């Protein structure tokens, strides 16, 4: 917005110079002033939004909204080069790394163990025991005799009828296992959908940034040409202000596209459960995060 303000001032100065030279008109100056006022209004609104977003950011990390902190400019670019052209590769990564999916898989394994335990109640159980017994007797006289007995036993328990308790417990365990498997299948579909959407949103944001950069370059050249034409007296104020507005919009599109790169990358990381490796990093190594907020 500061750059937009500088350009609006430049357009106003050009209109005033033409008016002073007798080749411009007062309406041209007034239109340029109106455009400048609109840019100033946009700047004030943007400055207010910055403070609101700073408060929201502080709150999201557990700080009070009124804390003073700086935001580092040293932020690593998302590893666009590491993005696989095959979305199925990322889906496989998500299947291995998503903690919510791992939790449901653990529930299935737990229910499988409970079903095996319930079925085991149908089978006989064997228990073994051993015991050593010593005693002594004192017959007539002064001698004592000691005796030692070694006892070993086996016990076999065979379930015959327990009022369908075992059958019901097996049925319940099987039903809970089927429910857990259904939940697992649903969670797998959720992971696939999350990765699919996040992948194409991130890829779209990368392509949009390239298009926005080209748009900004063209809009800058158009504004500079319109300004030169106006100063030379061969262009009108409408052409200049339109070019100025187009440039401001192109700059906003570029900033938004740059922001989308980071937000969609964060969504992709969340979808697959891990970061994409940086170009040149060893396989399997997850890059450390950089940048962020620093409390004062």
Description:
The chain is mainly alpha-helical and 296 residues long. It is 65% helix and 11% strand. A two-stranded antiparallel sheet has the order 1-4. The two termini are 27 Å apart.
Structural class: mainly alpha
Strand order of the largest sheet: 1-4
Note the total helix count.
6
H and E string: HHEHHEEHHE
Query: What's the pLDDT, averaged over the residues?
Result: 82
Number of strands: 4
As residue ranges, the low-confidence spans are 280-296
Cα distance, first to last residue? 27 Å
Indicate the radius of gyration in whole angstroms: 38 Å
Determine the oligomeric state from the structure: single chain
Largest beta-sheet details: 2 strands, antiparallel
Q: What percent of residues adopt helix (DSSP H or I)?
A: 55-70%
Strand residue percentage = 5-15%
* General shape: rod-shaped
Write the layout of secondary structure elements.
Layout: H1 2-20, H2 26-60, E1 69-71, H3 87-97, H4 99-120, E2 125-137, E3 145-157, H5 165-232, H6 237-272, E4 293-295
Antiparallel strand pairs: 1-4, 2-3
List keywords for this structure.
296 residues; mainly alpha; two-stranded antiparallel sheet; 4 strands; rod-shaped; disordered C terminus
